[in-house]
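Consider the following input, taken from an annotated entry for FIG000124: Ribosomal large subunit pseudouridine synthase D (hydrothermal vent metagenome).
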Amino acid sequence: MATDKAYKVLALQKGISNKKAKDLIDRGLVFVEDKKVKIARADIHTETFFRVEYPEDIEILYQDSDIIAINKPAQVDSYDIQDAIDGAELLHRLDRDTSGVLLLGKNRAFIDRAIREFKARRVEKHYVAWIEGVLYEKVEINEPIFTVKKGKAFSLVDPVRGKKAHTIVKPEELQGKKSKVHIEITTGRTHQIRVHLAHIGYPIVGDEQYGSRTQSKRILLHSAKMKILDYEFNAKEPKDIAKYK
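Applying the prediction step yields:
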């Protein structure tokens, strides 16, 4: 029986590009019977039947002919949401661990219009997070961020190479030596909130990549509200955000 690379067989079977097929395997969404396909370049029989599993129980906050707003669960990739909704395209992304409002466009004209709003910084983005340390007063952070994109993305404050980044943090609640904060960002750099909070000594709970020493099932960051054009969307806080353990 003939064999070929798993991603090539998947691409042919599903009528998608090799790149798309490899990405689906790398993200752990492809199965043969009950076994996950883990190696995209592994040799496999060309008659193998693949099953692609997209996230289930996606909560739709709102949709019309132009836009769809999702309450993204934590530990689900933004691209998995996009793949699960026919004809929709991400207008922005949330980190895998981040829950909350995620927006997708449903037609090219609206997508282009929305992207212009993001680039012009006319989109309001509000988050809630639990951070390490006790924050008593509002903090405004204007520190340039530079992102290293080789391998796993990593960002840092860099006055020379960085791009403008603006974050506003307001305390909401204290729980021992942890603080619940409201965050608004007017720019959208990679890992901006995580980097800025770590930079001022208040890493987000569970964010080991940026210095958190507190174990958590995920990074405790939630996209609570977004406003774009004439739309406003709100996502209810999940249990781990609403009340710290």
